[in-house]
Design goal:
The protein has 157 residues and is α+β, with helices and mostly antiparallel strands. The protein has a single domain, classed as Thiol Ester Dehydrase, Chain A. A 6-stranded antiparallel β-sheet has the order 1-2-4-5-6-3. Strand 4 and strand 5 form a beta hairpin. It starts with 18 loop residues before the first helix and ends in a 6-residue tail after the last strand.
Length: 157
């Protein structure tokens, strides 16, 4: 599996001591991840990887993974990388992302890696990469930059 986004010099400290349970619980509640059969395969502070296996119903007209599937898993990988660093009770919401499709997503499965670039109190900037894995070979098929918004818990009056 490619691990190009985990720079050795970058370390992140989670603000939430229960960050892993928070992220995995949120992922489990995402109906679209279940719909496409996605699974979270790696999780660390500031980093998340999501994988989806090839299925005919996830393809476009030429038999490649549909760009919407590619976008969906890299959006979630970046979002969950960001959520690992947010405060207790916070939720994550994507406010924008830019996706470049670099090559056809042709493989037995796709792997999306999300990595936090900067984690602020309200905004988190991430990047993501998607690889199509075919016959043990990884093809870099998409790259993303993303802005997330931290949805802070509402204070009781």
């Amino acid at each position: 599996m490619p691990h190009t986004l985990r720079p050795a010099s970058r370390t992140h400290e989670p603000r939430n001591p229960d960050w892993e349970a928070t992220v995995r619980g949120s992922f489990a509640r995402q109906g679209v991840m279940a719909l496409i059969g996605a699974e979270m395969v790696a999780l660390a502070p500031g980093h998340c990887e999501i994988r989806v296996r090839f299925r005919d119903d996830l393809t476009q007209q030429n038999g490649f993974f549909h760009a919407g599937v590619t976008a969906t898993i890299v959006d979630s990988a970046g979002g969950y990388a960001g959520l690992t660093l947010m405060s207790p009770g916070a939720e994550v919401l994507t406010v924008e992302f830019k996706l470049n499709l670099l090559a056809p997503a042709d493989g037995e499965f796709l792997v999306a890696e999300g990595q936090v670039l900067k984690s602020g109190r309200n905004l988190v900037i991430t990047r993501g990469e998607v690889y199509a894995i075919k016959n043990g070979h990884a093809t870099h098929c998409a790259t993303m930059q993303q802005t997330l918004m931290t949805m802070h818990p509402k204070k009781e009056k």
